[in-house]
Structure to design on (644 residues):
């Protein structure tokens, strides 16, 4: 497989004024799993039947793949300002290392850089790719706003939640797949299958994230267990619990939501309610449905080493411990 | 001429989540001179020889014209957060009426909306227009960063200053002209003339802005006289004065720069130095050179009602009092 990290490192940020470009360089050098550009390249590879390693297909897909990664990092940069997050990937966030204004302006420039990379898409494919990219970017901003709105909303349904994570997380994975495949020559039916694959692994991933926050193994899970419970975050577990609970359990749950000073007890108390109600199993079932849906999409694509990788990825995401 | 305001009002922001789109609607409804989209349309009109009022040329140019206006308003929205500006066009700024996070996220979405509008450019023209638009957007972020850097820089040359205002202000006007003309079918020589016209009226405009801040008539000038002097802003007047001054005047000027508590006296004192050194005349000469350069570009274009409007605009900008 192509080394996406090399392509990211090859981007040139040695430009003036330094105050604008240094934070961009810093952000992109901080690593991350590069899942989005990788998905775009694997999708292209699936369409050209594992022949991506040589020839034009890499060159043609790479600009969009990089645009997706730069775009994703732009969203992290601005999200960290809005969340006042001090650390990202083990390093100080840009607004801490520099300041808020730098994070805003360099973030803006990163978004523009994503579009600059996108303009390297072959001209005949550019209008469609730009349209999808714009729809994707819009969905992500809408998802972010919904997430903010949910904090203060008294009533959030599971459907609302699913729409929010679809916009905030899944649409980017879905478009990475679709754009990569489209540039490599996917038929409309293949484009749709790639899109749906990305959408459903994204949903499964996010649901698993919520589950691990409560039921993860502290030894393998990267962060502290129960963070979402302490923060009263409207995860799919909480929303499912509120839906499944009888009057008594619901009262008990709402009581815990008001407790803000007894975190250890709160985590234990809420987890006990979840376990009693079978919330974990209910959420795992939803997650498994999305994993199955993602896997089913792969049957509509050429069967080769790339689609095999996508199959493994979907299965790993569903079984991950961290 | 086409009513650009109607086209802006026709943009649909009645979308969910409201927290994302309301601030965009509010920002675009606050008016402004709509100079950038108007320039794009007049440039197109100049190329089709005043025939823009009917036919495809309007439809083809309008998406880019609107993209430029939405982009410009995005820069104002984020600039106001960074400058902590309370008021814009007589109304509360978005970060005051809502909050910083709303201004950041809705601003991001506005930038994306600009690209959405841009994707309406005819497909055969889109790659070039996107490339210019991206270069323009980059220049504006670079210019903004340079302006921030200048605040703390001990040494700023007039060349640095000219480059900063070119990037921050002029490149947008230049690209509005060039993009409008290109979509309407301008030859490469005409594209360049349109670009240079926009660039030089932008420079003339910004220099006149600096002059009016000191020498404007308080009755007709929109804001208080001397604001730049009080803020020690590195305007072309101050940089010219520092360059023209002998040792004695320079010492006197630097003395005033350190005074932060006697605004009325400071304005009078600095203005007296400017006047004694002939700074106003020197800056007016630079401004007039740019106006003349802009006018000279018009000779390279078809002579019609549109180029006549552009001639009047350049002359008015040079003689404006507010």
């Amino acid at each position: 497989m192509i080394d996406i990290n090399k392509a990211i490192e090859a981007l040139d940020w040695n430009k003036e004024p330094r105050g604008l470009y240094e934070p961009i360089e810093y952000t992109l050098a901080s690593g991350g799993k590069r899942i989005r550009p990788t998905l775009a390249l694997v999708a292209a590879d699936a369409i050209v039947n594992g022949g991506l390693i040589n020839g034009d297909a890499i060159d043609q897909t790479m600009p969009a793949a990089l645009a997706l990664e730069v775009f994703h990092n732009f969203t992290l940069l601005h999200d960290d300002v809005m969340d006042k997050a001090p650390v990202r990937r083990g390093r100080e966030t840009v607004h801490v290392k520099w300041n808020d204004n730098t994070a805003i302006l360099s973030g803006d420039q990163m978004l523009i850089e994503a579009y600059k990379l996108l303009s390297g898409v072959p001209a005949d494919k550019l209008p469609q790719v730009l349209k999808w990219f714009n729809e994707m970017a819009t969905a992500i901003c809408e998802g972010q706003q919904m997430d903010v709105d949910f904090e203060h909303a008294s009533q959030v349904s599971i459907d609302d939640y699913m729409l929010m994570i679809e916009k905030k997380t899944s649409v980017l994975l879905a478009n990475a797949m679709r754009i990569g495949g489209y540039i490599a020559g996917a038929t409309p039916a293949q484009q749709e299958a790639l899109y749906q694959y990305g959408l459903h692994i994204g949903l499964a991933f996010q649901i698993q994230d919520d589950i691990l926050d409560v039921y993860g193994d502290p030894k393998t899970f990267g962060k502290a267990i129960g963070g979402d419970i302490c923060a009263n975050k409207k995860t799919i577990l909480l929303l499912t619990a509120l839906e499944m609970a009888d009057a008594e359990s619901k009262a008990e749950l709402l009581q815990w939501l008001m407790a803000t000073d007894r975190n250890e007890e709160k985590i234990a108390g809420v987890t006990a309610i979840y376990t009693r109600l079978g919330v974990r199993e209910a959420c795992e079932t939803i997650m498994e449905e999305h994993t199955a849906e993602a896997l089913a999409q792969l049957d509509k694509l050429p069967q080769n080493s790339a689609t095999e990788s996508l199959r493994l990825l979907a299965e790993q995401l569903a079984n991950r411990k961290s």
